[in-house]
Amino acid sequence: MKKIASKYKYYWRRHGFRYAVFSSLILLAASLMINHFASLYANLRASNYVNDIVLDNLPVMDVDGLLNYGVELFFLFVMYCVIVEPKRAPFVFKSMALFYLIRSVSITLTHLGPYPVMTPIDPRNLLSTLISGNDFFFSAHTGVPFLIALIFWDEKLIRYIAILTSIVFGSSVLLGHLHYSIDVFAAFFMTYAIFHIAMKVFAKEYNLFKE
């Protein structure tokens, strides 16, 4: 605890660090709000569903509990990774904000309806606040853990946990018929591009992260 406290004291005194942290949190909160309203718009504009070669041949499974508790556990895991190393916060939060901003644009462009048979989502659970039912392309459940894996690529344990989480979440949304297969498949490529954009746009935060 003393070592972590000394890190906070050191970075908190550095010029511009507090601004970087606060601005990253504000940007992340704004991006999540924009993503929420974009999801609502996609929900209102949803049309018919389309056939999917994977979903058409995959029986639906109840993944509600797995995804809800999995999202909560992964969120706590990411927060732990940031808390123990405060220098990580600005780049992690701003990269996630960029992810959700780009996804917000993406989900407003094509208005597909949900696959007709899908796992029921408990409206009282966290997942129901993250999924409108029609915000498909691209899958955040797949993309966010993969983004964390890319950010922490040099930290093998974090990288492997994040990649495994991305695969499990991606498989789960397909088993629950919550996403089309293209949403999961493309999420890896979209996320890779977003990560490299973040490195350029948030170069100062990235350099701080790599100190």
Structural summary, described in words:
The chain is mainly alpha-helical. The protein has one domain (2-209). 68% of the residues lie in helices and 0% in strands. It has 9 helices and no strands. Helix 4 runs antiparallel to helix 6 (140-151), helix 4 crosses helix 9 (203-209) and helix 6 packs parallel to helix 8.
Average of pLDDT: 89
Number of domains: 1
Quantity of strands, as a count: 0
* Helix content estimate: 55-70%
Q: What is the CA–CA distance across the termini?
A: 21 Å
* Range of strand content: under 5%
Helix vs. strand class: mainly alpha
Q: What can be said about the biggest beta sheet? A: none
Question: How many helical stretches?
Answer: 9
Rg, Cα atoms, Å: 18 Å
What characteristic shape results from the CA principal axes? Answer: elongated
Give helix and strand order, one letter per element, not per position: HHHHHHHHH
Which residue ranges are poorly predicted, with pLDDT under 50 across at least 5 consecutive positions?
Answer: none
In short:
By secondary structure, the protein is mostly helical.
Strand and helix map with partners:
Blueprint: H1 2-13, H2 17-44, H3 64-83, H4 89-107, H5 126-130, H6 140-151, H7 156-175, H8 181-201, H9 203-209
Please name the defining characteristics of this protein.
211 residues; mainly alpha; 9 helices
